[in-house]
């Protein structure tokens, strides 16, 4: 079957029950009802704190073939996932599906447990490094399911993904199970991803290195959603979680891209008092904030809110009165963790509230501007943020397709050339964000506007930007690098499916030869 972005999707994929090709960003209108969690009962004065993860596994009734989930707010500082999988292996439990909100390089340590059959399937929003290479080699018995942040929340709430046991790394947890992420030696900030897991999983285990007396405040995940508590020596390495602030780039190329992106915003027609925005954590996005800030001060306007993964750059703009509210799904650095703890206008939100497309209104639907990065784009404005140009898994959809679909103006920033290779392809290796939801491509050599956005094309004529057709940008790149050699074709075997936010399949990843 050929889907709406022209990708061939097999009618049958071993290991997957339902194949629904992508039909368009807003084509699918679901019917039915959301699922609910099991009804729990807690007898008064029941002790929730257990002696070990092994004991918690026994208490939850975890057994072969079940699905367990984790969150990735600890990023490369995470200790929790390995501790749990080691305990599962000791119990002789096999054939598990893991459903973490994302996987980082630190999770390469899971490879031996895949080899032993402890883990046989993965559902996640991101996968990379050696674990990504293992997936591409076809070692897993089922294809990996890769979802957006909003799509993951949708899948859990709709029952598409059923979590038997959610293991939540808790930077602070009280003796009755209230959790937050802003206190303790392993503070990570917002717990926006496991909020959904805790609400829908059959059993919830909090793993903490900071058990405090009841009641804890503030509360991110309440005691009413937590079954058991386990205290360990350490749940994460702060050096891998957040160190200092993410910095504005001094790279000349990124400075040019950022200045162009800011000027796109200024002349878009949407740059007015009380506009809203999301900025990524990449150098170009953060640097664009510097130029946006200058324009806001000059025009004496302020943003109504900023959203997404919150960085120190956005916190600084908030504290200066340039952004009135911050909605935080994931906190990226130390100043942002402090702000979330101390500032009542810096608000923690779940991944569902942030980006679930099958809800009564995710925050992304109210965003005016989003600046997003990419590994490559193509002449149809499709964007790849998941694989390299040879198909290697090295990234994550994250909230990219969610915010691109919801925002008034989605801006993709990337260098025209990266490592002597042009970044505007005839066809991206993997489509993650469809071109129909992408409005502007910004490179260091020029800017291209999606032809369907005639309003932006007209408005940007008043700017000094080098606006050109995307084919012209591609020719500029080819003049400098030559026409790239096509990558070797993969095999026919599907090792992963890339879901669009509505659950349809926008692309597949095939086994590398």
TrEMBL record:
Molecular-function annotations in GO: citrate (pro-3S)-lyase activity; citrate CoA-transferase activity
Pfam families: CitF
EC annotation from Swiss-Prot or TrEMBL: 2.8.3.10, 4.1.3.6
The entry's keywords: Cytoplasm, Lyase, Transferase
Main location: cytoplasm
Entry-linked InterPro entries: Citrate_lyase_asu, NagB/RpiA_transferase-like
Recorded catalytic activity of this chain's protein: citrate = oxaloacetate + acetate; citrate + acetyl-CoA = (3S)-citryl-CoA + acetate
Domain of life: Bacteria
GO biological process, one term: acetyl-CoA metabolic process
SUPFAM superfamilies for the chain: NagB/RpiA/CoA transferase-like
Compartments where found: Cytoplasm
GO cellular component, one term: cytoplasm
The protein's name in its UniProt record: Citrate lyase alpha chain
